[in-house]
Amino acid sequence: MEPHVTLSELDDDPAAKVALEGLTAFNAPFVGPHGYKPLSLVVRREEGGEPVGGAFGWCYGAWFFLHYVFLPEDLRGDGLGARLLARLEDEARARGCIGAWVDTFSFQARPFYEAQGYRVFGTIADQPPGHARHFLFKRFS
After folding, report:
1. What is the mean pLDDT of residues 122-131?
2. Least buried of 4, 16, 114, 117, by fewest C-beta within 10 Å?
3. What pLDDT, in 10s, does the model give residues 48-106?
4. Helix count (H) and strand count (E) of the chain?
């Protein structure tokens, strides 16, 4: 009998949790004690204020993945982004990570990451059309 397959467009589909749990169990013998652990920094204009941005990612498999970063325009250009990244890298090292990686579009922050010591290891042209998606990594010393 053929399995029944359905299309889903739910942002938080309960089936995704089932699949992730299965994949996590499959990966466990290979990943070992370096399982998934969130690692983020939240930026507020003042202590106790509403969040205005931050840097969000996770440690997994002894590597830190920086999923996304956002700072409002008025908080850019004074080194805050570099300080956030350095702090995340320090925490990732403390958690046993051996490096970090990130992906960014050609219209975003590739030069910023390269200035922080990251190197391109892959590019997808026309993702989105007319632009490129770059994958960068940095191995900790």
Report:
1. 98
2. 4
3. 999 999 999 999 999 999 999 999 999 999 999 999 999 999 999 999 999 999 999 99
4. 3, 6
- Answer for the pair 24, 15: CB distance below 8 angstroms, yes or no: no
Q: Is 90 exposed, middle or buried (0-12, 13-18, 19+ CB in 10 A)?
A: exposed
Tokens for 94?
């403390």
Task: Report the C-alpha dihedral over residues 79, 88, 102, 98, rounded to 10 degrees.
Answer: 130
With beta carbons less than 8 A apart as the criterion, state whether 118 and 137 touch. Answer: yes
**Alpha-carbon gap, residue 3 to 135, rounded angstroms:** 36
- Contact between residue 34 and residue 96 where contact means Cβ atoms under 8 Å apart: yes
Q: Return the pLDDT at 141.
A: 87
